[in-house]
Amino acid sequence: MMRLPPFRYLAPRTAAEAARMLADHGPEAMPVAGGTDLYPNMKRRQFEPRALVGLRGLEGVRAITGSPQEGIEIGGLATLTELTASDLLASGYPAIARAAGLVSSPILRNMGTVGGNLCIDTRCNYYNQNYEWREAIHFCMKKDGTTCWVAPGSDRCWAISSSDTAPVFMALEAEVTLVGPEGERRIPAGDLYKPDGIDFTTKRREEILTRIHVPPANGVRATYLKLRRRGSIDFPILGVAVSIKLAADATVEKAHVVFTAVASAPVEAKEAERMLIGRRLDDELIRAAAAAAYRPAKPLDNTDLTLAYRKKMARVFVARALEELSEQPTRHG
Fold first, then answer.
1. Are strands 29-32 and 51-54 parallel, antiparallel or unpaired?
2. How distant, in Å, are the alpha carbons of 63, 86, 234 from that of 114?
3. pLDDT at residue number 298
4. Chain segment 234-264, per-residue pLDDT in tens
């Protein structure tokens, strides 16, 4: 049986207090909300904090408020189940509800938070194993070792981003608020990530993600599709979020195509986005855009199924998402 190592549990009441605790305890402290990823990693000794700063008691960072007309604000501690069950999201932002509902299993969605999913640790076949397994291969670059076994000649870790909600928020041009000891800052959701399997977010160690801000729906259509071996539990081995806005003449006015689980950060298919702008969403355009989106999706051999299959499915899933959006009614903000 794998057991948790000993640690102190701190229970702040505000995000500012939590940030101060994290700053005071330095590298020995980590924040915990639902703990669905953190606690298993602690049991495997991938994380070894001496203190955990519990976020579940923080005030005012769990509600889902606003409207499709004015935009919405989602508290970072809202559970994934609450996002899935939200009438506000179902009516105005169904892609968010869908992505949240595809995370793991019902029990873990009851515990896991949207902020936790946005900041979830990167994953890799050589890293997400028990201590003895990792010791047998002399560990890996991400924890205790010096070699990235996915790309042994590389000087960086290639563990992959595994968030289901991140690509959707990026496709919807959302922003996030981060609270630290010196105050708060608000950044685009896409700016939260950087392409390094170890140092994969721009969030400072002592900062807390407290809110997600999604702009007015304003005619935007969006969806999220997830590939995994089983229909539940599993992390994505490919995820695709697509959003479009159509002009009055039915041409595409705005488009975003964002992948998860193909790199250490979510990947935006900018060439495909540019190809869609100013054109009608017909079968020919969908095929061409899917082919263009296929190119920046470069999965490595660090997760389930083969990398060739996962790359091929990037094209298939973009085409399916665009076909779905071409048939959706417009949601006016």
1. parallel
2. 11, 13, 17
3. 86
4. 999 999 999 999 999 999 999 999 999 999 9
